[in-house]
Amino acid sequence: MRSAKDFFRPLAVGAPTPLTQVPARPSRVIHFFDPSNPKMAAKVPGMVGTVDVLLGNLEDAVKADRKEAARAGLVEIAKATDFGANTQLWTRINALDSPWALDDLTTLVTEIGDKLDVVMVPKVQGAEDIHYVDRLLAQLEAKAGLTRPILVHAILETARGMVNVEEICGASPRMQGLSLGPADLAADRRMKTTRVGGGHPGYLVRTDPVDGDVQGERATAQQDLWHYTIARMVDACAMHGIYPYYGPFGDIQDVVACEDQFRNAFLLGCVGTWSLHPVQIEIAKRVFSPSAEDVAHARRVVAAMGDGTGAVMLDGKMEDDASLKQCLVIVELAERLSQTDPALAELYAVEPAAQEG
Ligand SMILES: CC(C)(COP(=O)(O)OP(=O)(O)OC[C@H]1O[C@@H](n2cnc3c(N)ncnc32)[C@H](O)[C@@H]1OP(=O)(O)O)[C@@H](O)C(=O)NCCC(=O)NCCSC(=O)C[C@H](O)C(=O)O
Ligand SMILES: [Mg+2]
């Protein structure tokens, strides 16, 4: 473990100084594309400004014999594309135990490191994986002459990674956030699901029998398979000042259940999610932006609470310091999103002066 004094020192001579705070840029939707797929790659320039993050995926979903093509394709796209101020470029590299991860990092940082905001690392098991990437990134940044550090995002998709979630979040000042990898995590945990995220109709609770009639009609309610996992991620991220995200929802056609899954994650504290197909982009943006009603209510509470102390009644409900703090989360998120999204600025009626602050 590094001492507190060393924690924010560069890990290689000439590497940029680590950030003490993760930049709070909108990342409601992390849109995955396969850079080796010509049809998807052609769509990327047109998606700039419509998604918060464009992620060139090099790992799973890219066939083994397309790994080099995907890496080269991402370099080409990054060099040719102006991502503007409101869309970040991220990548998901191959797993650290694969034959491709080292070349992924070496090529991407030296070729397009100046355009790359975040490297997503899959199947992170513990702090040792982050330490490895941290040092390597510092060496490569120094070699490439980069002036700002590339951040790291870990995917939780093993039981060991989940058990070590707190140490992963705190392993480096580069840590930007965590995503849930429900498909790999389910397999590693030996869960009996066969889906990429989402629920399962068999995971339910049933009301008690009436008059001992166990065969009688009894209401059931499907439960959320991911509640425990997401809640743990959210706490670990909040503790370390980094951001939690849901992950993939593989049933592309079921836009209704997709929205439900995204909203559960939003309500529990996640700041964004992945989109795997263009149809999921608008869902993610809508769900991870607070509603106009919630923003208006939150502002009323903030106004009613004055100096923030004491308790007041508003619409028959008690408001105090703790509800004020929840409302400030909503108001601050709305103001941050309004700075990059004119439609939301209008929806939330944010004054231009507030947008600049
Ligand atoms: C899921 C898909 C394979 C579906 O692709 P396709 O069959 O081509 O869908 P459509 O015909 O509906 O596509 C319509 C047009 O849209 C383009 N398209 C599709 N997806 C994308 C995209 N992601 N970005 C940009 N453009 C896209 C198609 O090319 C069509 O174009 P056109 O013909 O010109 O109209 C496909 O969507 C896909 O591969 N998506 C990404 C999948 C992915 O990244 N998977 C990895 C992340 S999930 C994971 O890894 C699990 C996780 O790690 C865990 O453990 O849980
Ligand atoms: Mg996975």
Q: CATH homologous superfamily of the largest domain?
A: Phosphoenolpyruvate-binding domains
| Derived structural class | alpha/beta
How far the N terminus sits from the C terminus, by CA atoms, comes to 37 Å
Predict the CATH topology of the largest domain: TIM Barrel
From the alpha carbons, calculate the radius of gyration and give it in angstroms. 22 Å
CATH architecture annotation name of the largest domain: Alpha-Beta Barrel
Poorly predicted runs are 353-357
What percent strand?
5-15%
Instruction: Tell me the total number of β-strands.
Output: 12
SSE order, as H and E?
EHEHEHEHEHHEHEEHEHEHHEEHHH
**Domains (count):** 2
Query: What is the general shape?
Result: globular
Specify the CATH class of the largest domain: Alpha Beta
The number of helical segments is 14
What integer is the average pLDDT? 96
Q: Helical amount among residues, as a percent range?
A: 40-55%
Ligands in the model, by name, code or SMILES, are: ligand LIB3CWND, magnesium ion
Strand line-up of the largest beta sheet: 9-6-5-4-3-2-1-10
Tell me the major beta sheet. 8 strands, parallel
Pfam family, one: HpcH_HpaI
Protein name: Citrate lyase subunit beta
GO biological process, one term: oxaloacetate metabolic process
Keywords: Lyase, Magnesium, Metal-binding
Q: Can I get a quick summary?
A:
This protein has 357 residues and is of the alpha/beta class. It has helices at residues 38-47, 67-80, 101-112, 127-144, 159-163, 165-169, 182-189, 227-240, 255-268, 279-287, 292-304, 321-340, 342-347, 352-356; strands spanning 29-33, 53-57, 88-92, 118-121, 151-156, 175-180, 204-206, 220-222, 243-245, 273-275, 312-314, 317-319. The protein has two domains: 29-287, Phosphoenolpyruvate-binding domains (TIM Barrel, Alpha-Beta Barrel); 292-349, no CATH class.
